[in-house]
Amino acid sequence: MQSYPGSEVELADLADEDSAAHPNFLERIAARLALEGDYVTALRLRRRAVELDPETAHRHLALAQGLLEIPAQGVVHDWILGLAQGPTTPISEEVLQALRRSFELAPGNPYVLHEYGTALIATGEVGQALPLLEIAILKRPDQEWYLELAEIYRRPDIAKFEQAMIYYERVFEDDPKNMKAISGIINSGTRGSMDWPRIWRSVRRLETNKKRDTPYDIPVIQYQLDKLFWGADHPSQEHVALLIQALEAESHRDRRLHPAVLGLVITRLQFARHFAAGFALRTGVAQERLRTLRKKPIDSPTALRNLMKVYVYLDEAETAASLADVKFWPSKDRIESLQIQKLHADARLWVGDAAPYIKYSKEARTRTPLTADYRMEKLIRGNRVALVGPAETGDRLGHIIDEYDVVVRPRYQPEFIEENKHAQGSRTDITYYSGQDLTSLFEGISAAVERGEVKVVNARPFSYSAHAHRQLPWLRFYRQDFSLCFHGGSLGIQRMAYDLLQFEPEEICVFNSDLYTGSSMFTAGWRQGDAFGPYSHINDIVVSHDVKSEFKFMKALMATGIVTAQGRAAEVLAQSPDEYVHAIEEAGVLR
User: What is the dihedral angle through the alpha carbons of 291, 294, 299, 305, rounded to the nearest 10 degrees?
Assistant: First the structure.
């Protein structure tokens, strides 16, 4: 190679023509070309290396990796924009074939197991992938692989929280400064086993390992915090008041708990129905976050979003919207420009102005057309939409629901609707599914569409990679969520109303929702489980959402003049935020 006067590629081709090219030689040149960015030539050499040596596993593995290096444009998920055009690495059939062959030749190689399992996850083959990833990590314990597997287990469409917890704990044990691990422990533990002593054993180390003073050094605070998580009973009102008073006193001395620790305290209090106390602490968190962020340069849409989320949570959405005026953030990067537009539109929506959001969404559909978008728009535009929740509110408005042009509800369940049509109405035109429900109930909803009972099925953006390949004309992945939630994301009814609003309906009227102020979570027969507890899907209402902020968001949507409510939903939404918090504490449905 050093003495040949031409390029390495010319030498490789010449050697191949003379049947003198060894696969190792071709791979060596391919690897160097890939580092230089010449992925196409590198891929050609790797394909030839496989032809020359088809029975060696790492030839096929290198080919798969070479295929994944080829730059491509496709639909990606951005945390501000949602589904949008961007650089992607699609798992093609050739990639899967190469990895499958590599696995057949070397089923015990941890790198092969990891790469093949990761590719299968990306294509939605979770059941086949997880055992491969588990074996890979047994053979090669690796912190990065632990985190990857924990994140997979925690995904909404998988929701195996105990397995996620185990891997997060392994990472945290080796690296107590790993905040991704500690966040995972909190999220998986509170959504899963709710083993408070176990969660606290890890999280309290954020305080015990501090080199500077911490409120946890104060005996009364240490006692109250340990009792909160290690005590057998729910905390009393007196216990909570003493704890908050002591934390506030230390805050005035500029001594605060680590944000992750305080976040866990808030979650624990709200699981014990001390919602007002939890929201008071979260407001303090937002105020401190604002002070911190105002000291740092805002040099990216992500940093701007973090600041805007705080302003929105502190009821200063007008300020947030003014910060995201596009003239202040000129950028040659197309994605960044769109992110600023989306942030501005969402902030304006919070103050009741839907025009920027509708305009942005219309342009987004033009930029990145998605399957069933047109069908959805045709159903919604200019029509009256009934958005029907599953709560038992005492309302019997089924006849009014059926008078609407379009009826939208979560999780289509024909037997349930038939049994409750006096309250639920009898039709379903559009339905929305979570990631886990879409996977487990796919055959049933597909059959319902074939029978003409449902016209459009909506899935969350993160489900796109697992199901988009189906290319079904009725399966739509709604592209975007509200981007300025301070804690977690939007709740179901709000998320659906936000999505429907972009299509300019005449009205979106909410039925059968009491926003958790009733005596039961759901109407009997809609879904099993309606209380907090280990592995309950209800846990997400506290862990992944802020119900007070979501109440304000629904009132903001109503301020647009398009979203309305009837029955119990209208009564609840006429309350003030503080009245609403008192109502959910008194009702006990969140228990």
Answer: 60
Q: How far is residue 385 from each of residues 406, 427, 431, 493, 563, measured CA to CA in Å?
A: 5, 12, 12, 13, 9
Measure the CA angle with vertex 340, ends 336 and 342; round to 5°: 115
Tokens encoding 160 = 């195996």
Count of beta carbons in the 10 Å neighbourhood of residue 4: 12
Rg (CA), the chain: 27
Residue 308 one-letter amino acid: M
State pLDDT tens for residues 506-548. Answer: 999 999 999 999 988 899 888 877 788 999 989 999 999 999 9
Domains of the chain: 8-150 (1.25.40.10), 301-351 (no CATH), 370-587 (3.90.1480.10)
Compute the Cα dihedral for 559, 489, 387, 191 and give only its sign.
negative
- Rounded Cα distance, 239 and 530, in Å: 27
DSSP 8-state symbol, 387: E
Give the pLDDT confidence of 217-233 residue by residue, as tens digits: 999 999 999 999 998 77
Query: The whole model's pTM is what?
Result: 0.93
Pairing status of strand 384-388 against strand 507-511: parallel
Measured CA to CA in angstroms, residue 437 lies from 1, 246, 412, 527, 530 at distances of 57, 43, 11, 11, 17
